[in-house]
Design a protein that fits this description.
The chain has a six-stranded mixed beta sheet with strand order 6-7-8-3-9-10, sandwiched between helices. It is an alpha/beta fold. The model has no long low-confidence stretch (mean pLDDT about 95). The longest helix has 16 residues. It holds the Pfam family ABC_tran. InterPro entries: AAA+_ATPase, ABC_transporter-like_ATP-bd, ABC_transporter-like_CS, ABC_transpr_LolD-like, MacB-like_ATP-bd, P-loop_NTPase. One of its GO terms (biological process) is cell division.
């Protein structure tokens, strides 16, 4: 039996805010299996963003262990952490975070530049990723301001898929979209999950839990519920 793709063991994260110490995560232990689709919910300040940063290798815990694809990322240096993040994790953001001066295709190519993938192969894979994200090829040459919100999010999803990571992290992926477009984006994420990608979605929207096979609820930095 293979190791879980994500494992947090008694993870704590403390921040100093002025003269006070904030306990953003307080002993969180979570195991996520390969191919899971997990939604993470909780009120503002519950620790959702901090948890996402831990899984995304964007931050390290004050104490505890974080394992990604079998590697304890709390014990590696920054260069190794960057490599683990690049090879294992794709990020989808609420704000899309596309570069306005680049075309859709060029935005998708960016992660592959850092992976030193040759230009010809980059373009071919970027077109593949846009197809996976169900964006018509005719939009590949369009810049973000020439695309609708839903189309921009599809470009962002394609960019997250560019290095073919086993894990996708989505932070409020439908937050800037109307309900119809949001539904189509979630259906796309379900299809990616069905194809084997592990999905972790942070959201305030209860409706998104209908698409996942598991919901983790955080309260005051702790897991208050874990629903399958």
């Amino acid at each position: 039996m293979s190791d879980p793709i994500v494992r947090l063991q008694k993870v704590k994260k403390n921040y100093i805010l002025g003269t006070s110490e904030v306990h953003a995560l307080n002993g969180v232990s979570i195991t996520i299996e390969r191919g899971d689709f997990v939604t993470i919910m909780g009120a503002s300040g519950s620790g959702k963003s901090t948890l996402l940063n831990m899984v995304g290798c964007l931050d390290k815990p004050t104490s505890g262990k974080v394992k990604i694809n079998g590697t304890d990322v709390t014990k590696v240096d920054d260069d190794r952490l960057t490599t683990i993040r690049r090879d294992n994790i794709g990020f989808i953001f609420q704000q899309f975070n596309l570069i306005p001066t680049l075309t859709a295709l060029e935005n998708v190519e960016i992660p592959m530049i850092f992976s030193r993938i040759p230009p010809t192969k980059r373009k071919k894979r970027a077109m593949w990723a846009l197809k996976q994200a169900q964006l018509d090829a005719e939009y590949a040459s369009h810049r973000p301001n020439e695309l609708s919100g839903g189309q921009q999010q599809r470009v962002a999803i394609a960019r997250a898929l560019a290095n073919r990571p086993p894990i996708l992290l989505a932070d409020e992926p439908t937050g800037n979209l109307d309900s119809k477009t949001g539904k189509s984006i979630m259906e796309l994420l379900v299809r990616l999950n069905d194809a084997g990608t592990t999905l972790i979605v942070v959201t305030h929207d209860q409706k998104l839990t209908e698409y996942s096979n598991r919901t983790i609820v955080l309260m005051d930095g702790e897991v208050s519920d874990d629903i399958y």
